[in-house]
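Continued from yesterday's entry.
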Amino acid sequence: MGLRFEPAGVATFAQNHDAVAGRIAAAATPDSTSISATSTAFGPVGAALTNAVAAFDAALLVAGTDLSRAYHEFADTTRSALTSFLRTDQVSGNRAAAAARTLI
């Protein structure tokens, strides 16, 4: 039984998490133009609605920013783990090769 490790696949996995983080951040960013238009269209009567939408948008921005950050951090951790794995693999390979030369 063997283990097959695809460094390019792991790197792509990290890149995909960065891409998702970007999409989350973009989707969570409030559209201030829309809020302003609502306030203008409905006047004083729409103030409560406008305030509620603004509060929701603010909460969504905080949650989206946190989630986006978590995706970026996971991508960074994945890249760091990949670098460590490849470094360890290289060092272990060098040691095994040196040991084999010593035995021969």
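--- second protein ---
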Amino acid sequence: MAAAGVARAPAACSSAALNKSFRKEARAQSRVHCPFVQSKSSPLRHGGFRSEMLGNGLAAMQAQTRPVERPAVRAAGIRAVAEVVDRPSTQESPVDKQEGLMLYEDMVLGRTFEDMCAQMYYRGKMFGFVHLYNGQEAVSTGFIKYLRQDDYVCSTYRDHVHAVSKGVPSRQIMAELFGKSTGCCRGQGGSMHLFSKEWNMLGGFAFIAEGIPVATGAAFQTKYRKEAMGDETADQVTIAFFGDGTTNNGSFYECLNMAALWKLPILFVVENNLWAIGMNHYRATSVPEIWKKGEPFGMPGIHVDGMDVLKVREVAKEAIARARRGDGPTLVECETYRFRGHSLADPDELRDPEEKAKYAKRDPIKQLKNHMLEHGLAKEDDFVAIDKKIEEVIDEAVEFAEASPHPERTQLLQNVFPDPKGFGIGPDGEYRYKDPSFTAGTAAV
């Protein structure tokens, strides 16, 4: 069933012109930057939060009887442990027009891409789980747009916008989500496993905490190349993105320890959107201030408003510069919020409507736009032009994905380490099934 506010295409809508018309109509109904396209009330409500276990068709579990004890509200902006990232005592000057519009364009690109993914998913163009990033754009844009192309990013299953911000072309990502051979992983990665060697996008990971050791390894190889191999060009920085629920996993702490011990050039960026599927952050974590968890390892810990791209970018500048000059890792907690359910299969009935409304008022795209208008850095026409440009980019990405071919069946046997037909690999490195003398007398393979 289509989500509320997302139109269905007519059965005969097959031409490029009609598809484009459909997308335009759906856009007008469901966005441009309108959060919470799916919103219903739920009888499961307790202590100001919703609690539910989601599973394969399992009924919702009754909420716990113990009331939720919320910690004191954290101050807006940045808070850090002693002797962490040095910050100037005065507020940074506002961004100039060029930088501000660059940040706005990247966030709009991410939001528009995700909105289009919702349309395509409900039209049956995408399969499996699709997790959207709406609302969290300030984190991706704030950090990744300060990286170089040769820096590394490790993502999660909510990886589309990280890839977009890193520079992977939208058409390649859309084609990947369509399962087409022109995708960034030739149609084999899908929504949760986006990878690009060209852009050092080290992949999305379907299971939480999987990407943190990979990111730590990437940071280690940079340090090893520089210090053990004498490669003076090895100054790349790695960012590992993950959610609040991931910080309850052991590999998170193991990697914090290794990174701090060896002063690896890595940022651990927590996208704390308050919900791990249906589990509220304050129910699952004994110390909810995640940024404090770096201090026992001697690592700087910072808390920042993840709905404000300018504050995120300020932290990113300092933490990335710190890592690049060899001063070691930083743990950053970005308090943010997703404007859709956990995935497009989630009706988003767990969260309190008041909670969602509160964060909707802090939409990062609208905040940046208002900031630039108030400071005279841009005019309304500048934003209209960017919105139009991005719509054209995303429309072209969909048309490219739809016109692209599916992978050949022979691709199934590629990039598979063991012999896919069961005969093993010979001493020459070739599959033994290719040797007629070895397969003689066996069934056809």
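The longest strand covers residues 266-272. The chain has 13 helices and eight strands. Will compare against the first tomorrow.
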